[in-house]
Automatic annotation (TrEMBL):
PANTHER family: CHEMORECEPTOR GLUTAMINE DEAMIDASE CHED 1-RELATED (PTHR35147:SF3), CHEMORECEPTOR GLUTAMINE DEAMIDASE CHED-RELATED (PTHR35147). Belongs to the CheD family. HAMAP family: CheD. This is Probable chemoreceptor glutamine deamidase CheD.
Length: 170
């Protein structure tokens, strides 16, 4: 399953979920006993207008509700899930110290990462791993059978880094 911006998917152990992230963020949740889980891919921390009806996965605050709905539908508790956060890269190459106002110091990637941490806290999942920020983009693959997430990070200012497996387990 490939997620584009605004997509959300929740499934069982036979599923791998892939996505590409720049300043966007993905959150994964995984139930280690039942081997079910899901992933979102959002572009903005929150939807400011309530004029649109329904939930929109492009916004972090709506992703929280999508996770709550998927977990509740299965009559499970969010506290039994493990969460991981990815993305929030700085795609504009802003360097610290060159800002006119304080409001310019936080990139959209930074704001998305902050929203993702709040989403996981509000959901009540156990945060295992965060691979966020920096100058670049990520390709991630979430294996619901194992809970592992493979990350390929490409630093926008350097060459590729090696593929990393983030299990969250020691």
């Amino acid at each position: 399953m490939f997620l584009n911006v605004g997509d959300f998917h929740f499934a069982g152990r036979q599923t791998h979920i892939h996505t590409l992230l720049g300043s966007c963020v993905s959150v994964t949740v995984w139930h280690p006993q039942l081997l079910v889980g899901g992933m979102c891919h959002f572009a903005l921390p929150e939807r400011l207008s309530e004029r649109l009806s329904g939930l929109d996965g492009r916004y972090g605050n709506d992703c929280l509700k999508l996770f709550q709905r998927a977990i509740s539908k299965r009559k499970l508790s969010p506290a039994d899930f493990e969460a991981k956060i990815f993305g929030g890269g700085n795609m504009l190459n802003k360097e610290p110290g060159n800002y006119i106002t304080d409001s310019e110091t936080q990139t959209i990637g930074d704001r998305n990462v902050e929203a993702a941490f709040q989403l996981v806290m509000q959901l009540g999942c156990d945060l295992q791993v965060a691979h966020v920020g920096e100058f670049g983009y990520r390709r991630i693959i979430f294996d619901i059978a194992t809970g592992d997430v493979w990350v390929k990070f490409r630093d926008a200012r350097k060459s590729d880094k090696d593929l990393t497996i983030l299990t969250g387990r020691n």
